Amino acid sequence: MSRLASLSPAALAAMFSPDADKTLVTLLTLTGAGIATPVRLADHYTQRIGETDDEVLYGVASRGEDYIFLPFQITLPAEEQAAAPRCRIVLHDVTRSLIPQLRTITSAPSVLVELVLSSAPDTVEVSFGGFSLGGISYDAGTISAELAVESLAIEPFPAHTFTPGYFPGLF
Hints:
This protein has 171 residues and is mainly β. It has 2 helices and 10 strands, in the order H-E-E-E-E-E-E-E-H-E-E-E. The protein has helices at 9-16, 99-103, and strands spanning 24-31, 39-42, 47-51, 56-62, 65-69, 72-75, 86-92, 110-117, 120-138, 142-148. It is globular.
């Protein structure tokens, strides 16, 4: 079954209808070594989630956690036989609030991608886990990185050789 079949009718309408009153919001959660508290980002905003002396923060409150609005784009991988699938993500960090956190990372952080509706942010429509963030580069206004999954192509198959010691019933 595809993940598209598990989406609610409201989520499908938000994806495919240009006149939908609801928006499908992508939530990113970065965790791992070098990240003291999880970094939570959203590609849309639904409310004001805080303010400092310098700025007002907008984002999405989902399941008791605040996801800060930071525009980003995820490019799906090309279907190539010889290479492991890798997504490309570009974050538009014009305030440079994320770059100091990226500089402290010691290993590839884990990334969780979730889709929620703007009208019901506490209900996760679909979740994609198991990504790691690598190949990070940045300039004045953007951060580019790769979202990769562990490749099963490098796993040995079969794990054992068919010898009488491992498989006595074959001989």
